[in-house]
Structures are given as structure tokens and as C-alpha cells.
Amino acid sequence: MKKYLLSLMLMFGIGAIALPATALPFVSANSQYTFYLQGEASDESLLGQVRFNDLAETGQLRDRAITVTESETALGNGQSKITFNLAIAGTGLFGANEGILFGIGTNGDGFDLLSDVPLTNAVITLFGGEQVLVTFEDVQDFIDQINPWSGLLPAVGSTLLLGDEGLDASQVTRISVDFLVGQASTAVPEPGSILLCAIGLLATMAALRRRS
């Protein structure tokens, strides 16, 4: 009976090591943060104050409604994806050849993170309707503090200039930002590690037989 229980305990331990860690929410629910939006050639700007609550919130810049939503998705293995979406009602908010000044927490009020967590990747995508106009990869390289992440994009008092040679900014109807946060805290064992554990289990069982 003791041999049987021992083998079950050891096999259960191997299974527990193989399980990936589960990511918890990193952003405090219903916490307040701000975003900034401006056309490079315009003096008009919008400093919006919203809450992280999966609900759409609407402001206005010039004569256009600006709607903001956000969400956090657990990816497993200690990672989460935080998504920010800013939708513009209609086109023509920006000039065809102007850059777009954009930031999250520009006034210092960024995402409220529940724990210290690294920002491992950030991607900004500009859409025209459902069409991707341009994608900016590795945006985390422009953020001052990413490990642990400050919750800002890019820093207090700063904005990013979103522009591209082939971009017609007058067609932009949505700005989407995906932040990948966290890192794997529990590694899945390689086949060789599992084999070593199995050999150790067999050796332990053999030793117990010799004693009985």
C-alpha cells in the first residue's frame, strides 16, 4: 500500500510541474487612466479621462465622436494582453499627410497595475474601417520604463508621433494598441526531464521492494 501511494504522489508531482502558470489580471478593474490625441498640424487636442472597465466611453474632438474601449485577456503561462481601442466616428479628423500625436498616461495617469510586471511587447495598429493602414511593431522600445512597466505610453509629458510615408492619416478611423505583459513563471519540462523523473521513481520503488 505504501509503495502505491508513494508512486501516485511522485507522478502527481511531475504533472504539477508540467502545468503552465495562470495569469491573473494585471490592471486594476475600474481604475482611471488618461489618453492624449492630437493631429500634428493642429492645435486642437483631446485629453480623455476614462476607466478600465470594458465599457465604451465617448468624448469629442472637433466635430467627431471619439469612443474608447479597453480589455485584458489572460493568455496563460503568466501572460496577459491589454488592449486599448480608440475609434473615430467617420474619417477626415486628421490631414492626409499629418502625423498623429498619441499617448496613454501623458499627464501621469496611466494604467494602474496591481503588481510589478514587465512589458514584453507593444504594437500599435492604425485602421481605416476594417483595413489595416499601418502597424508599428516593438513600440515598447520607446517606453522609458518596461521592467517593471510604469503603465505609461511612452512617458509623463510625452507622446508618440504616429506616421508613415505611405499613410493617409485622413483615412484613420481606429487606433489599437496591444500590450503583452508578464512572463512565464513555470516552465513545461522537456521530455528528458520527465524521463529522469520516471527513472528516479522506478529506482525508489525498487529500493522499497528490497526493504520489504
Provide the fold topology.
Blueprint: H1 2-18, E1 32-39, E2 45-51, E3 57-61, E4 64-76, E5 79-88, E6 100-104, E7 119-128, E8 131-136, E9 160-162, E10 174-182, H2 191-211
Antiparallel strand pairs: 1-2, 1-6, 3-4, 4-5, 5-10, 6-9, 7-8, 7-10
Helix pairs in contact: 1-2
Instruction: Determine the N-to-C terminus distance.
Output: 12 Å
Count of the separate structural domains = 1
Strand order of the largest sheet: 3-4-5-10-7-8
Number of helices: 2
How many individual β-strands?
10
Structural summary, described in words:
With 212 residues, the chain is of the alpha+beta class. The chain has one domain (32-182). It contains two helices and ten strands. The protein has a six-stranded antiparallel beta sheet with strand order 3-4-5-10-7-8, with no helix packed on it. It has a four-stranded antiparallel beta sheet with strand order 2-1-6-9, with no helix packed on it. Helix 1 packs antiparallel against helix 2 (191-211). It is globular, with a radius of gyration of 25 Å.
